[in-house]
Amino acid sequence: MVLKKIKDELGPSLYFTERQTRRSKSTASPSKLQTVDKTDDSKDRFELECKQMLSITPPSSEHHDVMKSKRRRIQIKTESDSKDLAATVKIKKQRVSRITSKETLPTQPPPHFWPMYNEIKKMRSRIKAPVDEMGCANVATTVSGLSEGKVYRFQCLVSLMLSSQTKDEVNFQVMKKLQDYFISKGYKQGLSLEAILDIDELVLDQLIYKVGFHRRKATYIKQTANILHEKYNGEIPRTIEEITSFPGVGPKMGFLLLQIAWNINTGIGVDTHMQRMAKIFKWIPASKNMDPEYVRRCFESMLADHREEWSRINPILVGFGQVVCLPQRPRCDVCTLSRTGICPAVDKALLKKTDTDKKNGIKINSKSRGDLSNLIKDIEDLH
């Protein structure tokens, strides 16, 4: 039956023979590549020829099996190599970790730290930044009028959880939207633990969609609300270990929450502005891993004798980074440090342009996220 099927499908065509010849030219003998005689009427002769042609397949199949075995061997080798590579990477990570753990933190700030920091504090007293009114330390009071109590502390936590990868202006808008929404739903104090427990996660996600990673944050806020309700009787805990056990809450949020909600000063909250300025101002030693945690440990070690600055340094540097020392195109033209010679990150080209503009009667640009009018007036009076 098999031979008849082959005969019906191929007939007198030579395609099958030629194709097999191309595939197994290196393995098939010339005698096996002879074509079928179209004029042979003998059934035995035809069966013999078919058998000869089909006999080409075993070498090809065998060769295919060999290739499969080779692929298997290659795969096993690759897995072994990947394990070796993973082991190597793991060793490297452990080595870096050991270096980091043994790395000595500075016990005193560099000589130019205090002159720069004190001058920044003077400038901050002359400018208004988004963090001053819409930052996490003030947004709860600005939105709801509260300044203490369970609801206030919970609002501070929610504000901090929303603030990650989000500008203060956007965070403020979302917090106000939540407050107005819950008041309209009958919650007298607006945004509260009970309101978050009752709201559907999808609805919460729609209310906070303007913040970065809003879907993940909606899940984290709901989970944290359940934890507070079941484990802490709706109250914010007083230790950094308990706070950072909440989903989506890291050391920066934890230390800031303790400072804002409980006035407990056990660490410094380091955000992206502080991390960036500590690096470009050369306030901390260079390291392979200049992450916020490393910056935090350095600041806490350098300011061990000045713990009163632990709660001040964050809003001072964050506000300065928001309106003056910007991540892109910093406003060195309005910074009083730019002409003192102690700042290592001055944009000298901008200062030259500012001097040229002044000679031509062009005033300093006052456009900013905050209010620079008082600081600009001081700069113009000095020069």
UniProtKB/TrEMBL annotation:
**Subcellular location(s) of the protein:** Nucleus; Mitochondrion
Using the UniProt annotation, give all residue ranges assigned to the region (Disordered).
Answer: 13-42
Q: Which reaction does it catalyse?
A: 2'-deoxyribonucleotide-(2'-deoxyribose 5'-phosphate)-2'-deoxyribonucleotide-DNA = a 3'-end 2'-deoxyribonucleotide-(2,3-dehydro-2,3-deoxyribose 5'-phosphate)-DNA + a 5'-end 5'-phospho-2'-deoxyribonucleoside-DNA + H(+)
Give the HhH-GPD domain ranges: 162-323
Which E.C. number(s) belong to this protein? 3.2.2.-, 4.2.99.18
Domain of life, per UniProt, equals Eukaryota
Q: Which Pfam families match?
A: HhH-GPD
| Keyword Nucleotide-binding annotated | no
Keywords in alphabetical order, please. DNA damage, DNA repair, Glycosidase, Hydrolase, Lyase, Mitochondrion, Nucleus
Which CDD domains does the record associate with it? ENDO3c
Against HAMAP family, the record matches this protein to: Endonuclease_III_Nth
- Give the family per the record: Belongs to the Nth/MutY family.
Q: What does this protein do?
A: Bifunctional DNA N-glycosylase with associated apurinic/apyrimidinic (AP) lyase function that catalyzes the first step in base excision repair (BER), the primary repair pathway for the repair of oxidative DNA damage. The DNA N-glycosylase activity releases the damaged DNA base from DNA by cleaving the N-glycosidic bond, leaving an AP site. The AP lyase activity cleaves the phosphodiester bond 3' to the AP site by a beta-elimination. Primarily recognizes and repairs oxidative base damage of pyrimidines.
Q: What is this protein called?
A: Endonuclease III homolog
Q: From which source organism is this entry?
A: Pichia angusta
